[in-house]
Write a structure and sequence with these properties.
18 helices, elongated, alpha/beta, 2 domains
Length: about 600
């Protein structure tokens, strides 16, 4: 099999899979679908009857003038009623089916959104936000087009072609049907051939469009970095380079469309000319009436106009399928971390966390953790310190089960976290991360995100505990102040206080402080350290820190180096040991004295 044949076969298979995946959404409103189909058939029957009524009207007028005031009046009324019904039934059909289409779009969009949230952190670290958002946007738009035009343009047109062919075969010379069918076959074959060729161009356009959008979104999200280095022109060149490739593909797409339209018009013009010549000859020799000529002409116009539109519809449906292809490909993304069959809810309560010989690597060629073992007893605080890259933050990611361990196990109250539901696990853990990213909403919303059902009083109490209440009250709009994209309207320290308030509001059994005060000044750090110590009371707490002064009161301190625990003990024990921790402590104390001086 040639590569092109294989590609075409795979594309057809993907198209049918995409169409089949939409069928369940149609049957959510079975009654509406059935009514729409009935109205569709009624509209087409009325449409096919219009030329027949017109033939009777022309023949009645042609035969005699004596019945001019009697017969044509009823034929004219009937002709008008059929015209009305052919349009009215179509409009009613669209109104009935609208809810089916919009609900399908809503359901698919929700399914993709939920699936994106269910995918692992690894996927989201690799994804390109701009490209993914554009794929979803095009895909949902394609669903609307596919459902409406497949059901209400292709099927009705095929039905109308069948009805017209039966009438032509039954009433007239077989040559009428032969010419009609041959024209149809040539038209459809030409449309399919050119459209399949154009699909390669369309997919290229989609890829380039997503790539350009990704670069634009990425550049705008990093606006400050662009400004810091004065790289506006550089970013513009990168974006224009992507758009230049898209422009080339778009021009090729448009010129090939012009070729397709011209070819379709040529085929239809030849077919209509032959049929009209044949009909005119039959009128001349008396085997057909003038009304028959009008009927054939009306049928041809009625048939070829939607057929010409059918070519456009088929092209757009193929484009829609291509647009939907990437969106549905997201649904095929494997969930790296999933609930085990029969997973139970975590029995948190007063939780004891136990890392048992945990080994982990983000990539097979770079091991991060090597058989790390430690326990955080219920209500106790354990701190993990070490140089950057030692694997400290990886511990929190594994505890949240953003990744599964490669070796060993993590247990909470004796339950392996791989055997409990992710929702119950994460509900029991609160975190104040090192890099706090906020939603582009109000301060109130961002604090309330820790527990959306909390009352306003509880939210304000959490803000007070995080020492951010007075700052918020000083703002013109108070708690309704917007924080901007990723919280950029707030300083690093203000963002971190919001994160602390959010964690306090969640009121979890297990707390993780991942460099929780790293963005604060010394005075604020001391104030919040006291609050954090109070919050951590009677909670199982894991503190990940770089500054040793923040963990001196921990029940146990672990020193992590190159993914291994090299020391453990209390602050006094580790100083007495006079090894890694003591050396790091002396270095930081010296830096503090120098800064104070």
């Amino acid at each position: 099999m040639r590569p092109s044949d294989h590609s075409s076969s795979a594309s057809s298979t993907n198209d049918w899979q995409t169409i089949r995946s939409l069928l369940p959404y149609l049957w959510e409103f079975k009654g509406r679908v059935v009514v729409a189909m009935v109205l569709l058939v009624a509209a087409k029957l009325a449409n096919v009857m219009v030329p027949l009524a017109l033939k009777q009207l022309v023949d009645a007028l042609d035969k005699s003038t004596h019945t001019l005031l009697l017969v044509p009046i009823w034929l004219i009324i009937g002709y008008g009623v059929l015209r009305l019904f052919s349009t009215l039934f179509g409009e009613l059909r669209d109104a009935v089916f609208a809810k089916v289409t919009q609900r399908a779009i809503r359901r698919v969009a929700l399914k993709v959104f939920e699936h994106l949230h269910s995918l692992s952190l690894r996927f989201h670290l690799d994804r390109q936000t701009g490209g993914v958002s554009r794929d979803i946007e095009r895909g949902t738009r394609g669903i609307s087009f596919l459902l409406n035009f497949t059901l209400f343009n292709i099927l009705p047109t095929l039905l109308e072609i069948g009805l017209v062919a039966v009438i032509l075969l039954k009433k007239y010379d077989a040559w009428f049907a032969i010419i009609t069918f041959v024209t149809l076959i040539i038209y459809i074959a030409f449309t399919l051939f050119i459209t399949e060729w154009r699909m390669v161009v369309r997919r290229t356009m989609n890829d380039l469009d997503s790539r350009a959008n990704t670069r634009a979104i990425d550049s705008l999200l990093n606006y400050e970095t662009v400004k810091y280095f004065g790289n506006e022109a550089y970013e513009a060149r990168r974006y224009d380079h992507s758009m230049e490739k898209w422009e080339t593909a778009a021009v090729q797409n448009q010129t090939s469309l012009a070729l397709l339209n011209a070819g379709q018009s040529f085929i239809i013009a030849i077919g209509i000319t032959l049929l009209m010549w044949l009909a005119a000859a039959r009128v001349v020799d008396g085997s057909m009436t003038l009304g028959d000529l009008v009927l054939v002409n009306a049928f041809l116009l009625q048939l070829y106009m939607p057929l010409h539109f059918l070519g456009f519809v088929y092209r757009e449906i193929r484009h829609s399928l291509a647009d939907m292809e990437k969106m549905f490909r997201i649904l095929d993304e494997h969930r790296e971390v999933a609930d085990a069959p029969g997973a139970q809810a975590l029995c948190s309560g007063s939780a004891t966390v136990h890392f048992e010989g945990v080994s982990f690597a983000y990539n097979p060629d770079r091991q991060i953790l090597h058989e790390v073992s430690f326990e955080v007893p219920a209500g106790h605080t354990v701190a993990v310190v070490g140089a950057s890259g030692a694997g400290k933050s990886t511990l929190s990611r594994l505890l949240f089960r953003f990744y599964d361990v490669n070796g060993g196990a993590i247990r909470i109250n004796g339950q392996d976290i791989r055997n409990v539901t992710q929702s119950s696990l994460r509900a029991a853990i609160g975190i104040v991360p090192q890099d706090t990213v906020l939603f582009n909403d109000t301060i109130y919303y961002n604090i309330a995100y820790g527990r959306p059902t909390a009352s306003r009083e509880e939210i304000i109490a959490a803000a007070q505990a995080a020492h951010i209440h007075h700052f918020v009250e000083s703002l013109p709009q108070g708690y309704d102040s917007m924080v901007g994209e990723r919280g950029l309207k707030l300083s690093g320290g203000e963002k971190q206080r919001v994160a602390i308030a959010r964690a306090i509001l969640k009121n979890p059994a297990i707390l993780i402080f991942d460099e929780a005060t790293s963005a604060l000044d010394s005075k604020s750090e001391k104030a919040i350290q006291a609050e954090l110590a109070q919050i951590a009371q009677n909670r199982t707490t894991l503190v990940i820190a770089h500054r040793l002064s923040t963990v001196v009161d921990a029940d146990q301190i672990l020193v992590l180096e190159h993914g291994r625990v090299v020391e453990r003990g209390t602050h006094r024990d580790l100083l007495a040991l006079d090894a890694h921790y003591a050396q790091l402590w002396r270095l930081q104390q010296q830096q503090s004295h120098e800064q104070a001086a």
